[in-house]
Amino acid sequence: MSGPKAKLLALAAAVALMTGLPVRAFAMDVGANKAAVDRILDVEYPHLDALYKDIHQHPELGHHEVRTSTLLAKEMRDLGYEVTEHVGGTGVVAILHNGAGPTVMIRTELDALPMQEKTGLPYASTVQTDYDGKTTYVDHSCGHDIHMAAWVGTAKTLVELKSRWHGTVMFIAQPAEEDVDGAAGMIRDGLFTRFKKPDYGFALHDGPFEYGYINYKAGVFSSNSDSLDITFHGRGGHGAKPQQTIDPVLMASRFVVDVQAIVSRERDPLQMGVISIGAIQGGSAGNIIPDTVTLRGTIRSYDAKVRARMLDGVRRVAAAEAAMSGAPAPDVTIVDGGKSVVNDKALTERTAPVFKAAFGDKAVELEYPNTASEDYSEFILAGVPSVFFGIGVYSPERVAAAKAGGPPLPSNHSPEFAPVPEPTIRTGVEAMSLAVMNVLGAA
Predict the structure, then answer these.
(1) What percentage of the chain's residues is helix, strand, coil (to nearest 5)?
(2) Helix, strand or coil for residue 213?
(3) Which one of 3, 349, 400, 417 is least enclosed by Cβ atoms within 10 Å?
(4) Residue pLDDT, tens place only, 281-322
(5) pTM: predicted TM-score of the whole model, two decimal places
(6) Positive or negative CA dihedral for 348, 219, 227, 255?
(7) What is the 3-state secondary structure (H, E, C) of 138-186?
(8) Could you give the percent of the chain with pLDDT greater than 90?
(9) Are 76 and 155 in contact (CB under 8 A)?
(10) Are 334 and 224 in contact (CB under 8 A)?
(11) What order do you get walking across the sheet with 292-301 strand by strand?
């Protein structure tokens, strides 16, 4: 045997030797399919770029993604998918049948974040909306707009390459990922009863590393998350007469510092655990001690025992701060957030050689999980074996400069998070299309 096929098999054998994975994982002709995806992208990329910038300029918060979901539904109908809207609120399900075979789910998120963009991009968001009774800016600073463009691009390539696979693809656009309840909402609304439960699932997330690169990991890929809301109650009064008050600002301030002892002294140093306070609200003027102060934060972990210990510690520290001030017990509310995304070992081992064949040393197996959280875990807990992987967004020059001590790379949720659309979107389409086709099999 000679030619491209022989070269592909040789590459398969080499990767199998390095990774210990079986050569049979390369049933698909990765090189030929990647070339076909690239040819489609050469034609379609301008549309995807325009779609991305449109979505970026018109972000919507969770459960309010009306324009965004309508836009994606139209894109999928135009491609010939069977589209159902309003699943779990603003969610969209788009299905394409292509003969007998497995059903594969591909997910994107729809929502943005309540924060002001500071990237200075010509297509930066200036949108403002009501959030918690206040006017706030809205920004796709988590990168879900990149995900949506790659999602539509993948849908297009799978239509164009129908002769190369068989089975059913189930594209879902999920609301309210940032609220960590959108996935569960779609499931409650019959996602896996109104529609066939998928045999496999895939999702991606962009992040602050070099574009053209992807990362993946079998097993735990992301963290557990819990949201924290504490209200300290005091007795308000004049700032010049603190002896007549019980100061909730002081209690809240002590808590912010003291709660870190839970992380530094009660958590196993070899286990990940984070407690961060992101909002403090209370008071109206500098010379008035208020009656109450509210803190809001997030708690992250991988291990269930570490999580339980940190949650207990948060409650203890909050109660102690109030007791030291002779104040009433605080109101402590801890709400379960996203559970750890746990990638299916067998599916990851089946997908990894495809990533290696397509991207070479730019396909990187992670040593440690990500500390961020993601409610894609709900689909996995519902019984969909999945691979959740990452794609980079920054130029090699910018990454190198940051590593050399230059300006750090803005991460997701930063007001300066600014993915480079091309080749980030192209990489997302390539990786997702190849991963999906690999489990659908040759037609």
Answers:
(1) 40, 25, 35
(2) coil
(3) 3
(4) 999 999 999 999 999 999 999 988 999 999 999 999 999 999
(5) 0.85
(6) negative
(7) CECCCCHHHHHHHHHHHHHHHHHCHHHCCEEEEEEEECCCCCCCHHHHH
(8) 89
(9) yes
(10) no
(11) 273-281, 292-301, 224-233, 331-336
